[in-house]
Amino acid sequence: MDREQKTKRMQELTELLNRAGKAYYQDAEEIMSNYEYDALYDELKGLEAELGITLSNSPTANVGYEVLSELPKERHETAMLSLDKTKDVEALKAFAGDQKVVVSWKMDGLTVVLTYREGRLEKAVTRGNGEVGEVITNNAKVFCNLPLQIAYKKDLILRGEAVIGYRDFQRINGEIAEAEARYKNPRNLCSGSVRQLNNRVTAQRNVRFYAFSLVQADGVDFRNSRARQLDWLQSQGFEVVEHYTVTREELEEKVTEFSEKISENDFPSDGLVLIYDDIAYGRSLGRTSKFPRDSFAFKWADETRETVLREIEWSPSRTGLINPVAVFEPVELEGTTVSRASVHNISIVEELELGIGDEIEVYKANMIIPQIARNLTRSGAAKPPSVCPVCGGKTEVRKVSNAKALYCTNPECQAKQVKSYALFASRDALNIEGLSEATLEKFIAKGFIRDYTDLFHLDRYQEEICEMEGFGEKSFRNLSESVKKARTTTLPRLVYALGIANVGLANAKMICRALDYDESRIMDATKEELSEIPGVGDVIAGAYADYFSKPAHREEYQKLLDELVIEKEESAGDQIFEGKTFVITGSLDHFANRAEMKELIESRGGKVTGSVTSKTDYLINNRAESASSKNKKAIQLGIPVISEETFLEMLQSV
């Protein structure tokens, strides 16, 4: 390339990397792999060095995310620079020279600056763009391991990384129903959690803070040692990043030790940081326009393997989004066998020009998450399916933010009914342990589940399930046992499990009792007949009758009866509490829990609610003298407050 072509290429790289950076840091999206980003970044740096040109919007000259939220802004007293980096251990040795260096994890979260005055946390500010950050003090106060008060009473300023571990990342993502709303990685989740306007959300995210640098602590003699600074911070109650002081000769062995720990770590890390232990020496070196000269970052040289792409599996989700997953010939990476990698969206499939049979290069991002580094063949033959792999419904490509994504257009697609299946398997319904929404979503996407009865025949897919990530022989055995137990149930539980609008377990019990637990009457009851049942009413009766008016629902109910053993229950006799409403509060002596007592009351025709109103007949509380709000309300309304003993006497008086 001549100089003009190189300049044009530099402009292309700047635009592409900025677009990828915005998607990653601000929109929680990935439009290219970390591997590809690093390669393009290095190419841009090389061109800038060769040409002596740096564009004003170059990612090599701008660091951090742009401040866009409504949080208060604050300028840092000294700019927070990024670190120069390498993937070469020899470059680290050259940096160390004859000095001792402190080596520690380079955590992949959000950098935060903390200020303590008179021993109390006064302020927390994010790194932001390096010059201006966002004030997140209220959020920092609910980090799960951050001391709000310390013994040191003078002004203290320190820096550290706020991170969310992989286990919490998976838990939180599993609680998000919409697939496109889920976070792509722990770093994005942490950024969103730390920068919340409501710190109640932050508190639920289990954010941890790891101190990695002391900025100011007057009057403490650290004997000119960075390592002693970290040890002192630990003595003040801070959790500090794992670190060691080593010489040039010890450095390579220590890097290897760190690399061997990655698979065991719960926290995300994208490399190591080295800083001279000698504080005065480090300061004497000054800085460049972008990097401090006293520290250096080491990024893992990604272990890559060449393999062959065998399939692009299109995996539907509950929102209709269909995610592409690359399935390739198994290879060994970082000590484990991998054969699958998420490709995230159609844009990345197109960018990589993926086709079945292509030779691809794969790696583990941060030595954890399998990714495609590049496509060596680039046949570009892969096309998104025109029909949904789960339901056969028509698909369409939609533009979502910066990327193209595939969606199923069928509103009745089984993949969109995950919550219905989760209700069916829930504790108050069929009680199938081990079937979380995340697991159900995977099973449905693979075609294992197309209706409720399929839940009782997962043994058909035993081999495939045992090979799925997070499963194994033991997990499958436990699930099979739970399914076997679930086959024996009660009619009210089955009715509740069907997910009829407004029909909870209590209403299901009332309806089944009124219909004498007759399995055939359950689906033939009319709206008028149901409306006459105390506590049901027109709305519930209408929803119930409408549900069973649909042939598909009647057929599914009949199929379920063939799968299940329905335990016989008492018919509508001894309904001594019919028309009576109870509220239960406080601890119990004769029942295992309130649910057990509630079930007994409902079996005798009564109703149990959570709050005392004018319609309440009895408040059950073993402490009649309690000053609780429920007791006060009951006394105010003239409602009897009875003990468990009195309740049991009422039962025995029949």
General description of the model:
By secondary structure, the protein is of the alpha+beta class. The protein folds into six domains: 3-51, Helix hairpin bin (Helix Hairpins, Orthogonal Bundle), CATH 1.10.287.610; 73-298, 2-Layer Sandwich (D-amino Acid Aminotransferase, Chain A, domain 1); 305-408, OB fold (Dihydrolipoamide Acetyltransferase, E2P) (Beta Barrel), CATH 2.40.50.140; 414-486, DNA polymerase, domain 1, CATH 1.10.150.20; 491-566, Orthogonal Bundle (DNA polymerase, domain 1), CATH 1.10.150; 581-652, BRCT domain (Rossmann fold, 3-Layer(aba) Sandwich), CATH 3.40.50. Helices cover 35% and strands 21% of the residues. It contains 24 helices and 24 strands. Strands 12, 13, 14, 15, 16, 17 and 18 form a seven-stranded antiparallel beta sheet that branches. The protein has a five-stranded mixed beta sheet with strand order 2-11-10-3-9. The chain has a four-stranded antiparallel beta sheet with strand order 5-4-7-8. A hairpin with a 2-residue loop joins strand 4 (110-117) and strand 5 (120-126). Helix 1 runs antiparallel to helix 2, helix 3 (89-96) packs across helix 9 and helix 16 crosses helix 17. The longest helix is centred in the N-terminal third of the chain and has 23 residues, at 3-25. It is globular, with a radius of gyration of 31 Å. The relative contact order is 0.07. The model is unreliable at 63-68 (pLDDT under 50).
